[in-house]
Amino acid sequence: MKPHLCSIAVLSLVVSAAAQPPAPGDWILSSLTSTSLIRLNPATGMSNPFATPPGVWSNCVEMAANNIDLAAAIGPSMTFPIPSSPFVIVTPAGVVSSMVTIPALGNQIDLDQDGSYLTPAQPGTAASGIHALVRVSAGSVVTTVAVLSSQPNAGAIDQDTGDYIAALFSTGTLLRIQRGTATVTTIATGLGTLSGVDFEPRTGTFAITRFLAPQVIRVTPAGTMTTVATFTSANMMKVDDETGNLLVTGGTAVGLLTPAGAVITTRAVGGLNGTGVEVYGARKVSGSGNFAAGQIYNVLFTFQRSSGNTYVAALSMGLRPGIPLPDGRTINLAIDPLLVLSVGGLPGVTTGFTGTLDAFGQGTGTITVPAGFPPGIRIYCSAVAVNAALPSGFETGNSIGMTTN
């Protein structure tokens, strides 16, 4: 579906006089023309750079594992091939709290359930000239997930399976890299020049930007493609897991689209050459892959600055369509008997599913998969915490999906 551009006003950027840290709901932008990360209030248009890591341009941005800081990949130079690049964590106040070198410039970051980051690596120097997906751990250790045959311009995590997804730039190929085995299979090919990819938890599909088209497309796990929308210079895109909306950037434009492709808001940002975009405070749903019967797994629930508040987590056999909240967000669980039984912990299966959030706004529970549990069953876990600042009085935390094997 093409966006209804005729009914939407294009709003110009208004730059604020004083730098302000980002607030929940702000759009965070990275740009080929600046190393600064930029906060933009989509309602007012107020904008300012709030972090300037060392480098030449900021290539991509993602909410960090603590749901407060931001992770970014920084272009170290304008020379090609691109040399090794800084991967940084920055605070809302703009302080670079950690930095590690990745093999070459990462074009998109996705957050995994264990707090590590997935990013593509393109050929850099002769010594590191490989096409690959890499992971950066919470302790800043870089490991290679898979070596690929062509340039990956974006990577994401399939939250239903926990597998890694790579979008190859020039060949237009979407790949699946199985978690654990690193087996590479092709989802679809001939999709065009791919620049961004993100998982859509409400539909179980992949939203993708086609850089040279420029378009946003949707691809199913079986490889069926549909066109969602046209968007000027579409370069990178993020899915808001709580609303299903698509945030797209490219050139000087930033736009918020419905899942069907209708434009909700667009902003013309003077001087921007958009390379990355994120919703500040976005609570990403993260897949954990397959869980083995008879094993115990930790589950981390992360919330936006809700330390000291109470939380409740639950298990469910269903993820979609989810439970709508009054403010338009969704708890990614469907009501079913397992959900009702699991609130507060299912004896012998879950512990720590209610509690008080720590100073980082986090809580931890455990899932014990009983021995002999039937294989191939999809089970989801989600959590809510009390937050009086939100219209619903609740906020959703990170969720996981698992398939028993």
Largest sheet properties: 6 strands, mixed
Report the sheet-strand fraction.
Answer: over 45%
Secondary-structure class: mainly beta
Span of the ends, CA to CA: 38 Å
Question: Mind telling me the CATH class of the largest domain?
Answer: Mainly Beta
User: For the record, what is the CATH homologous superfamily label of the largest domain?
Assistant: TolB, C-terminal domain
User: Segments where pLDDT lies below 50 for 5+ residues?
Assistant: 1-18
Mean pLDDT: 81
Shape: globular
Number of helices: 1
How many domains? The number is 2
Topology (elements, then pairings):
Layout: E1 10-12, E2 14-15, E3 27-31, E4 34-40, E5 46-51, E6 57-63, E7 70-75, E8 85-90, E9 96-102, E10 110-111, E11 117-121, E12 131-136, E13 142-148, E14 152-157, E15 164-168, E16 174-177, E17 184-188, E18 194-200, E19 205-210, E20 215-219, E21 225-230, E22 236-239, E23 246-250, E24 253-257, E25 263-268, E26 274-279, E27 289-291, E28 296-302, E29 310-316, E30 323-324, E31 330-331, H1 337-342, E32 350-351, E33 354-356, E34 362-368, E35 378-386, E36 394-396, E37 400-404
Parallel strand pairs: 1-25, 2-5, 27-37
Antiparallel strand pairs: 3-4, 3-26, 4-5, 6-7, 7-8, 8-9, 10-11, 11-12, 12-13, 14-15, 15-16, 16-17, 18-19, 19-20, 20-21, 22-23, 23-24, 24-25, 28-34, 29-33, 29-35, 30-31, 32-34, 35-36, 35-37
